Amino acid sequence: MDRRTFLRSSFAAGSAALLPSHGLAASSATLQDRVPGSIAESEIEGARFPDGFLWGMASAAYQVEGAWNVDGKGESNWDRFAHTVGKVKGGATADVACDQYHLYKDDIAILKRLNQKSYRFSTSWSRVQPNGTGPVNQKGIDHYSRLVDTLMEAGIRPFCTIYHWDLPQALEDRGGWPNRDLASYYADFAGILAKHLGDRITTWAPFNMPWTFTYYGYGVGVFPPCKSDFNQFLKAAHTVNLAQGEAFRAIKAAAAKATVGSAYGMAPAYPKTDSEADRAATARYHAMNNLYFLNPAMHGEYPKAFVGATPYEAMGFKAGDEKIMKVPLDWVGFHYYTRRVVSNASGSAGVGGHFGTETEGEGGGAARDPLTQMHVEMPTEGPLTEAGLEIWPRGIYDLVTQISREFNHPIIEISENGCCYLDGPDASGRVPDARRIAFHREILAELARAIADGAKVRAYHAWSLVDNFEWADGFTQRYGLTYVDFRDQRRIVKDSGLWYGRVAGSNRLT
Ligand code: FCB
């Protein structure tokens, strides 16, 4: 029996008692007939998306570009990490990855063929400024300029994420994100991009998943630069909030047509029990993991993420920082992958240490950290993907409607959603990844329901255009709607890609 089958059968036997504690109503029909958390076929068939909805796909420079030392590119923190023995599964590196640096025209042709309207890509800072500060490497700018031109010729909106985790190593050597000076270096970089590309790019997101790279890199040490110090995380996160504000102004100053939003990682959180303590811990999770970079932008202040007072001193907060951070975003972008169940861990010391999957797992055990004092679980009530993440389609409805309510109905873009399945080509050369189609169908049905209920969602980006280098998991996970044979860079659009192309062409799921 595989893990999914096991989970389904053990759910029927043991989880009826678990459901009410998550605050999720379940009818007896759901329990008996359906996979937990799944969406009825009639809802999927009835789902509609508005005219002009932006169907898209996403990627990140380090995960797809390769060409790690080509045309003057400097070393990044992820180059250094992947070149260090024992850091990435299988000893993989992204030196070549999907070679999108050279093959971008082929990849954009796939986007066009699949009726895509938006491509979310990121820029490599060390390709544009090899040392993070100082002179511009014109060849780096030229690459992104060609990429943007090719997208626009194909009728696809370029959505630029300025920073998706790869920092010039030279800046890491100067202390990395805990060094407050990085805020203005980063704003200079953002301004350079806006100056050279802002005549064509109008959609900018300064940071991908800022909580993840600051916490994993400086708080618990599973991402570069592998530091495990909660105070370093607090400082890094504060620099990033300052950087977000300064970059917003630099982009707007350089590019009149620019709109600036975000690409935050978010997860709807549910209290483990109905106790006041668990509900308060869940609110802290929401503040720390979902709002820690959104609230400073929208309101110039940190959300209440801590058990006690906000630790301004440890963060390196200075008088006036609230004004630097406050840059009400033009639209709010966030990813949805899965949900969390949260309980109070006040009194239990220590930092949680188990990382099931590098980009999503936040581990259990004791309190995750000393100041937020919560215990965070990745539930297994619904089926799991091959990265071990629970499939919980209604989570996107809950998250989108929550953010809509809390931020006065902003324009929303889903900047990522996707699933890992390892399906490869069959004997006829087709990639029949039916599970990925099922995954996106159900989540999209729930997204359509949120739109029907008033949420102003204008875009959805599937992660990812192509299978790629999945950070510390190397090439052991495949999220692409296009299969990549990493031996020869051959691409095969998977069944899910063909299906998603039809969705993009019809605004419906059947
Ligand atoms: C997200 C990251 C993206 C990729 C997917 C699977 O958290 O933004 O780079 O790793 O997960």
UniProtKB/TrEMBL annotation:
Top-level enzyme category: hydrolase
For this UniProt record, give its keywords in alphabetical order, as a comma-separated list.
Glycosidase, Hydrolase, Signal
User: Biological process (GO) annotations?
Assistant: carbohydrate catabolic process
Q: Which residues form the signal peptide?
A: 1-25
Coiled-coil regions in this chain? none
Output the Gene Ontology cellular-component terms: cytosol
One Pfam match, given by its short name, reads Glyco_hydro_1
Please verify whether the record's keywords include Hydrolase. Answer: yes
EC number(s): the record gives 3.2.1.21
Top-level lineage group: Bacteria
A molecular function (GO) term: beta-glucosidase activity
Q: Which PANTHER family match?
A: GLYCOSYL HYDROLASE (PTHR10353), LP05116P (PTHR10353:SF36)
Family, according to the entry, reads as follows: Belongs to the glycosyl hydrolase 1 family.
Protein name according to UniProt? Beta-glucosidase
